[in-house]
Write a structure and sequence with these properties.
With about 160 residues, the chain is an alpha+beta fold. It is about 35% helix and about 35% strand. The chain is built from three helices and six strands; from the N terminus they run E-E-H-E-H-E-H-E-E. The chain has helices at about 20-40, 65-70, 95-120, and strands spanning about 1-10, 10-15, 45-60, 75-90, 140-145, 155. The chain has a four-stranded mixed β-sheet with strand order 5-3-4-6, with helices on one face. The longest helix has 28 residues, at about 95-120. The radius of gyration is 19 Å and the shape is globular.
Length: about 160
């Protein structure tokens, strides 16, 4: 992986060039857009949510339960953080409406990006130590419209 940047709505954001991650993001966003498009309201807006869950791999403590049932695992994944992204899909009816929405979203995206930077720089104590030399030391998953039960720290961003 190598660092790179992405220009979105007059804002340059950091990114990592990872084809597998890019494919996963495109797939989940595409699924959400299709789902929201099929339920769009006449007023032009539908809401959904993506959640990004980060995990830590921990060695599972020994015990007879897993050994006796044949379900013993050497490692388990413990969720330590969840980012919830609330998404509103809008469908402007005119080009003027589209331009107005884009102008309104650019500052909202910038505020959200700065909020993310502030929070991740401030709240670091819960992040587990990196104990592997793997390219990505923390497994993750991207969920579409997830249930509310999480066992990790939750951070919500609203644009």
């Amino acid at each position: 992986m190598r660092p790179s940047s992405l220009d979105v709505l007059d804002l340059t954001l950091p990114t990592v060039a990872d084809p597998e991650l890019e494919t996963l993001i495109e797939t989940r966003v595409g699924q959400l857009v299709r789902q929201l498009s099929s339920t769009s309201s006449p007023s032009g807006g539908s809401r959904g949510e993506l959640a990004l869950r980060f995990f830590e791999k921990r060695r599972r403590k020994g015990g007879l339960g897993g050994w006796l049932t044949g379900t013993a695992k050497a490692e388990e994944e413990i969720c330590w953080e969840v980012w919830k992204l609330k998404i509103t899909l809008t469908s402007p009816r005119t080009e003027t409406e589209r331009i107005t929405l884009l102008r309104a979203e650019a500052p909202a995206l910038q505020r959200t990006a700065m909020t993310i930077v502030k929070i991740v720089n401030r709240d670091k104590d819960h992040i587990p130590p990196i104990t592997t030399s793997e390219m990505n030391p923390f497994p993750y998953e991207i969920l579409l419209n997830p249930r509310a039960e999480y066992d990790g720290k939750t951070i919500g961003f609203f644009a």
